[in-house]
Every structure is written in C-alpha cells, then in structure tokens.
Amino acid sequence: MPRSSINHLRLVLLHGNGLAVLSAIGMLAGVASSLVIAGFMVSIDFVLFLFQDKENLGFAGFSPGQRLLLPIGGALMLIGLYRLSTKANQDVGIAHVIDRLQRGRGKLPLANALFQLGTAIITLSSGFSLGKEGPAVHIGSGIASKLGRTLHRTPSELRLLIGCGTAAAISSAFGTPLAGVMFAMEVVLMEYSLSGFIPIISASITAAVTSKLLMGEQAALFQVQITPPTQLEIPWLILTGIATGLVAAILHRLIKYFLGLNRVRLETRFLLAGLLTGLLGMLVPQVMGLGYDTMNAILTGEFVWWLLLAILIAKIIATAAAVGLGLPAGIVAPSLVIGMATGALVGALAPGQANDSFYALMGMAGLMSALLHAPLAALTAVLELSFNAQIMFPAMIVVVLANLTCQVLFLQPSIFQTLLSNRGLHISTHPLRNALASRFLTEIATENFSVVTYHMNSTTISEILASTGRLVLFRDPQHSYLVAQVTLLHQLDKWLLLPEREHGDLHVFLRRVIPERSRISVLDEDASLLEGIRILQNDDLVAIQVPLDTFRIGLVTRNKLTSVLISTTDGDLH
Q1: Where a domain ends, among 428, 448, 471?
Q2: What is the C-alpha to C-alpha distance for residues 264 and 400, in angstroms, rounded to an integer?
Q3: Residue 291: which residues within 8 A CB-CB, separation 6 or more?
Q4: Residue 335 belongs to some domain of the structure
Q5: Staple partner for 367: which of 94, 244, 291, 427, CB 3.0–4.6 Å?
Q6: Rounded Cα–Cα distance for residues 314 and 267 (Å)
Q7: Is residue 375 located within the same domain as residue 516?
Q8: How far apart, in whole angstroms, are the C-alpha atoms of residue 538 and residue 526?
C-alpha cells in the first residue's frame, strides 16, 4: 500500500467520528479478541489433555483422587499468583468491565486483562465450576478499550468499543454472534443504542468468522432434534419457568452467603473453594469444569432423573462457592448447566410429546435470563443453539416467568450487581442516568473563547479582544469568570479614554463589569455529563472548564449542557 494511502488511513482512524470508523475499530477488536480467546481456549484444552485418560475425555477421565487434588492444586497456584501481583490488577471479570464503564470512562487497564488471562487458564484447567465467558469478555473488552485509547477515541466511543469487545468475546467463546450482541447491550452496556448496533454487530460477526477460520466449526452444543410442546403442555412450561426462577434465586442467595466470607483471608477462601469442588467432583464428576460435555449429555438424554438431580445440587454448591469465594472466571457456563438440569428434570415429569432436549433448552434460557437479567440474550442464545424458531414462543413464556419469580417474588438483582455491591460499588440501571454518565464534558466542550488574565497589560488584552471569539474567560488570582467579549471590550475602551493619571489597576477596572453570577468551575480532569449537571447546580456557576489535552482547555456552558440534556431525553444518546 502506498505511503500516502497509509497516512490517509491513519488520519481517518485518528480523527474520524463516523459510524464507519467505529465499525472498523470494532472489527479490529473482533479479530484480535478471537485470536487471544482461541489461544486461551486451546491452552485450557491442552492442560486437561496432558493429565486425563485419553479414552475417557472430560473430568470423568480423572481418578477420584485426581479430581480431589486438581482444584486444591489450582487454588495453591492462584494463591501464589495473587501474592505476586498488585491488588489493583486483581479486579477481573464482567463485573470489573461494568464498573470501568460506569466509573472509569471506559478505560480498562491492560495489566488486569493479562492477569485475568493467566488466572482463568489456571482456574478452568483445575476443574472449578466456572465458565470461560467472564474472562473472555474481560479480555475482549480490554483489547477494544486499548485500541480505542491508542486511536484517541472519546470516552463515549470507548464505551461503545467495549460493547464491541464483549460481543466479540461471546461470539468467539460460544459461536453465537447474535447472542453476543444482545449480551453486550443488555448485560454490559445496559442500554440499546441505534448508533451502537452496527459497530457491535460488525465486531461480533468478525469474531465469529475469525474463530471459524482458526478452529473450524466447533458448536458449543450438539444439534439435537427438538420436539416443540402442544398447547396441553403449557402448564409444564409454566412449571419450568417458575422452577428455573426458583433455582436462580437459590443460587443467587448461596453466592451471597459465600460472599459474606470476604473478610476471610484470600488463601483460606481459595483453598475452601478447591476443597469443596474436589469433594463434590469425587462424587459427581460432571460438576467440574466448563460443563459442555455435561450439557451435551443432558441434551441427548444420557442421564437418569436421580443423576440429573445430583448434578443440579452439586453444581449449585460448587458454582456458588467458586463465584462467592472470588475465583477469577465466569458464571454463565455453569448457569447453563444448572438451567439445563432443572429443565430436564421438569421434562422427565412432563407427559406430553416434547422431549427432554426441549425442556433442557427452556431451562437454560430461564435460568440464564433470571440470574443475569438478560432475557433477550437468553432467547437469542436458544435460537442460535437450536436453529429452531418454533421454540421461541415457549422460551418467551419460560423466560418471563423465571424473571418474575426471581426478581419479583424473591427480589434478586442481577448477579453482577450483587458482585459489585459486595465490593462497595453500586451501578445504575436507570436509562437516563446511564446515558448522561456515558457521555463526557470534553465531547461537547467549545474552544471558541478568549482568555484574559490579571497580569496582562492593556495592549495584550486589546489584541485578544480583537479576535473573533464571542466569550471571554476572565481569570483573577482566586476565580475564573465568563463574560461577553463586547462587554469587556467596552470597559477596556473606557479605561483607555481616561486621563493617564486616572488609570488605576486595569484588572480591577475590568472586574467591575463582570456579572454577579458568572463564575466558572475549573476541573483538573474530564467528567461525565451527569457530574457536570451536579456541578452546575451551584447557582453562581455558569460554565465548567475542562482539560482537552496537555495544552488545551475547553468550556461547557450551562446553556450547552441544557441543550444536550434535552436531546438526550429525546433519545439522541450519541
């Protein structure tokens, strides 16, 4: 490619603000995320391949003693890694991504993503009842955030790019590009933005294609023949929805119980999680690991009802312990196993023509939706995994009832809200508040003003006021003020017309025409529009000064912020 074309592309990526630019960066994030996540997944498979019986894959290929010692050994390795790292780098997972979106202006530290990668390989290779989607989302979002910062994107664009990284990660990990988009919008960004759909879809599609090129067609679940229910089986769908909502609430409360042990030393918590996982794994091998082999076995009807019940109980305890005691991996995959087991148990009781595979998928959708507060992501996941649009209507019945049971009857929030609240962090789910918190003052600040300081002489001030700016930022030693340029120019002319003997302090003379309520709040760093509204609640403030870079400053006036607020309430979020 000619150098001129490369330079043009660089300029477009650095300074363009269009949808195409964000989509292009999202696609880059999709490719990069797929490459890293493919390596991450291969690493886990390789570690397990080294130790298990090659004729009996999965954790059933380990002896009972190995199943006991493997998670304890993994806990010891994690303890060593945590001791070697700084506490600031130890915040990981989807909860960390959500927190950085709401409080960190979309800046995800690369060190945390690398720490997540290393600890997740150890955790998932050790058989803990956790999933790969949490680490995948953190890694994908971290890559997208780093790309955005390198290309000097605005904070709201970084937010959108993190959605791209999230969608790419789910798409790569599960082979479900549409569910990746819904998950990014519903769970991480917590909003649906028309301007966000195209870049996020671009990233998800790119990740799916890259993953297929790297690893071939590797569906997360087997394709099975689904027999939809008849109208007479609707009561069993209702029972499935209520059951999955109840199980989601039980899992949530058990996680809260283990979270209550957060005052205990990390070493004790990790060893306790390893011991519980090992003991449960000795009795029920299917409780260990990501659980895809268990899900496929449930779908194909390999388990009798009493084994399904044992898997359900053991998986709930092992997952709650691993999540609540702070192991660094995800909760989505084990929630799918728990949901499938719940649904299959209901299916074993149902007398109609619908098979166990159908009820297992319904249970998966219900529990995922209730636990994560992600109904659309759950529905699209079922659609993509089943390739059968006929099950969407019954899935909607189950999802609605599961959410009502868990959220309304048992008052359980999203599991990620609980995990963040345990750290003393609280996230907002209010759409208007999130819209204002996701945009920043530097994005709407103007540079169309002049600056006059108290040490300037009349000649310098005359030259400044002769410029075309309409507003003047007037600084004295204590405060900064905003004044109309024409007002200050008239006062300067009066001072120049005075006899020289009557010339006093020029700055004091100019200060006389500054309105009573014209003070400017000077910030050392950027702030969100929500923070800007709070600042301007002070009656004598008319504008906020923010740093644009090392050398430039910008102003956001009360009128400008008001106009943006009006456009935001009308739905123009970006």
Answers
A1: 428
A2: 38
A3: 129, 131, 315, 333, 334, 336, 337
A4: yes
A5: 244
A6: 23
A7: no
A8: 19
CA-wise closest residue to 480 among 427, 537, 387, 553: 553
Q: What number of other Cβ atoms are within 10 A of residue 358's Cβ?
A: 31
- Rounded to the nearest 10 degrees, what angle do helices 194-215 and 155-174 cross at? 40
Q: Of 248, 39, 247, 48, which Cα lies nearest the Cα of 128? A: 48
Name residue 528's beta-bridge partners: 440
Q: Does residue 553 lie within any of the structural domains? A: yes
Q: How many CA atoms lie within 13 A of 91 on its CB side?
A: 17
State the distance between the two ends of the chain, measured CA to CA, in whole angstroms. Answer: 34
DSSP 151-164: TT--HHHHHHHHHH
- Average pLDDT by consecutive 10-residue portion of the chain (574 residues)? 53 58 91 88 78 63 88 96 91 91 84 92 92 91 91 85 93 87 90 80 93 73 66 87 97 96 90 96 92 87 91 96 94 93 90 77 95 93 81 93 95 92 78 75 89 87 80 88 89 83 77 88 88 87 90 90 73 46
Q: Quick one: CA dihedral 303, 307, 311, 313, positive or negative?
A: positive
Q: Which two tokens stand for residue 305?
A: 């009802």
d(CA 555, CA 483): 13
Within a domain: residue 220? no
Domain boundaries, position 372: 231-428
Q: Between vectors from CA 450 to CA 446 and to CA 455, what angle results, nearest 5°? A: 140
Residue the block writes with tokens 């189950």: 398
pTM of the predicted model, to two decimals? 0.83
d(CA 504, CA 459): 15
Q: Which long-range contacts (CB under 8 A, 24 or more apart) does 78-86 make?
A: 78/119, 78/122, 78/123, 78/270, 78/327, 78/328, 79/266, 79/267, 79/270, 79/271, 81/115, 81/118, 81/119, 81/122, 82/119, 82/266, 82/270, 85/115
Only one residue has tokens 């950085």, namely 100
Give the single-character DSSP code of 446. Answer: B
d(CA 278, CA 288): 8
Same domain, 406 and 529: no
Residues 6+ apart with CB under 8 A from 279: 68
Pair of tokens at residue 561:
């912020």
What does the buried/exposed string (b/e) look like for 123-142 if buried means 16 or more CB atoms within 10 Å of the residue's CB? bbbbbbbbbbbbbbbbbbbb
| Strand residues in 381-500 grouped as ranges (E) | 449-453, 471-475, 480-484
> What pLDDT, on the 0 to 100 scale, is given for residue 574?
45
